Amino acid sequence: MTATQARRSLIPFLVAALAALAGLVLTAPPAQAATSQFRGMNWAVLGDNFSTGPPLSCRA
């Protein structure tokens, strides 16, 4: 079997694999997230990894 014949024999397999993947993507349900418990609060503690100065990478 030559290289060209080997590639030609792989084409139906690749087409079938791509069709299967496309079928999975098209039939998957939409993603949903239960975010009703989040109220937009600021959970940061004052002084906890917070600085009003320049970033550490800019300090001399």
Description:
The protein is mostly helical. Helices cover 42% and strands 0% of the residues. It has one helix and no strands. The radius of gyration is 27 Å and the shape is elongated.
Overall, the morphology is: elongated
Secondary-structure element series: H
Rg, rounded, reads 27 Å
Low-pLDDT parts are: none
Gap between N and C termini: 68 Å
Count of distinct strands: 0
Structural class per helix/strand content? mainly alpha
Mean of all residue-level pLDDT scores:
75
- Assembly state: single chain
How much of the polypeptide forms β-strand, as a percent range? under 5%
**Largest sheet, described in full?**
none
Q: How large is the count of helical segments?
A: 1
Q: Level of helix content?
A: 40-55%
How would you sum up this structure in a few lines?
The protein is an all-alpha fold and 60 residues long.
